[in-house]
Amino acid sequence: MKSKYVFLLLLFIIGNRSVKGQFEYNNLSYVVEDIPVDSLQMLNLVLPESVKNAPLLIWIGGGAWSYGDRHVEMKLARNLAKQGIAVASVGHRLSPAVWRDPSLSKGVIHPAHIEDVARAVKWLSDHAQEYGYDGDKFFIGGYSSGAHLASLLSLDSQYLEKYDLNPSIFKGILPFSGTFDIPHYREILRNGARPELAEQHVDAVFGSDSLIQVSASPMTYLKNLSSPILILSDNDLHRYTRHFEDALRQTDFRKVEVIYTFEFGHGALWRNLSGEEESPHRNRMVSFIKENAMRPKG
């Protein structure tokens, strides 16, 4: 019996820790209590110790909807927490990726990923007081495929409405280096160096029905945009950002900031944001959040 309690204590210590200036909670299930410890449907939470009721950035990492990991986003989360921002690194179920590794042949299809993120937002809304971040100062963002999910959840209200929430819960949106028009993305891949990615990658994530791909595209819902948006793009994916920006400029919404970082490729920008001791682009994330945290709700 004693050894059992020691084991449980060790699990608690491993899952939750305090580093200088921060509190960290790992492997928090946003679905049910009794799920495997290695489940994808979990989030990690980092809180700045010195800031009471800090604004919360709900962050979704990249990985082509197929091989993301909430844990690899923790460097970014910790760096943001140093600057007074609470961060939830959200995991979600993954799609097949045989184009990357033949063994990755099983997985989910849209809308499973976005439904997971919506459930995570509901959990975070319900537990704000318990963990001590500000439930009225939510921001959502992500990198690569995470940028797609963050912007889709912010623009298509159906996923949050299942939980009596709506996109006005977000005071700002930070989609970085993503794709926002799935048919456009598929067409570019089909005409590129690896045309098989149109089916093995895009169709494996969203299905082959073009209407569903349109409905899974943030571009489809631009008329719903009501929260300030900060878009950051690397040199490799700038064509997708430009396509999205051009559509945004056709709307009446003007709280839009787009930054193109042509000095960084896709992986290099993520590494700069996450791991560099000094990153002007990460600093812009922080200032964007702090500027908009005081914006009236709704």
Automatic annotation (TrEMBL):
InterPro entries: AB_hydrolase_fold (IPR029058), BD-FAE-like_dom (IPR049492), GDXG_lipolytic_enzyme (IPR050300). Residues 44-233 form the BD-FAE-like domain. SUPFAM superfamilies: alpha/beta-Hydrolases (SSF53474). Keywords: Hydrolase. One of its GO terms (molecular function) is hydrolase activity. It comes from the Bacteria. PANTHER family: AB HYDROLASE SUPERFAMILY PROTEIN C4A8.06C (PTHR48081), KYNURENINE FORMAMIDASE (PTHR48081:SF33). This is BD-FAE-like domain-containing protein. It comes from Jiulongibacter sediminis.
